[in-house]
Design goal:
Blueprint (H helix, E strand, L loop, with lengths): L7 E4 L4 H13 L6 E4 L5 H4 L12 E4 L2 E4 H13 L13 H19 L19
Parallel strand pairs: 1-2
Antiparallel strand pairs: 1-3, 3-4
Length: about 130
């Protein structure tokens, strides 16, 4: 896959929690390592490239041709931004089944707890080159 599809964070564009997280990642990603796409605007060639389960309930992260999802995607995003020695990487010490259980509770309730936008967030002009789809 081409470079824009490496370090690609795929998120629910109408989820208010997801949009807040993306805004935080844009602010913290000083080296501009991450690229973004909403689930709703994901190009077909990416969406059909071997995901293990549907995107609808999960953040996904594409790195070096490998899809990461749920809690592992979150940990890999932080690893890509901050390196393997960041405190966030302590999350790998917990079994994936436990991490994903917590993740799934938040994912299932995200609209009820945080709300839902009518349409996807539009990036500002300085961020436009980091969004695909």
């Amino acid at each position: 896959m081409s470079k824009p599809y490496n370090h690609l964070v795929v998120y629910d564009g109408v989820c208010i929690l997801c949009n807040r997280i993306v805004k935080l990642l844009l602010k913290k990603d000083k080296h501009k390592r991450l690229n973004f796409s909403t689930l709703q605007g994901l190009p077909t060639q990416i969406a059909t490239s071997g995901l293990k389960k549907p995107f609808s309930e999960s953040i996904s992260f594409l790195k070096d041709g490998i899809w990461w999802q749920q809690s592992s995607a979150v940990l890999m995003v932080y690893k890509a931004m901050f390196g393997p020695y960041h405190w966030s990487q302590l999350g790998w010490l917990f079994p994936r089944i436990f991490r994903d259980f917590i993740y799934d509770i938040i994912a299932r309730n995200r609209y009820r707890w945080f709300g839902k936008n009518e349409q996807c967030m539009l990036p500002n002009p300085e961020q436009q080159d980091r969004f695909i789809g």
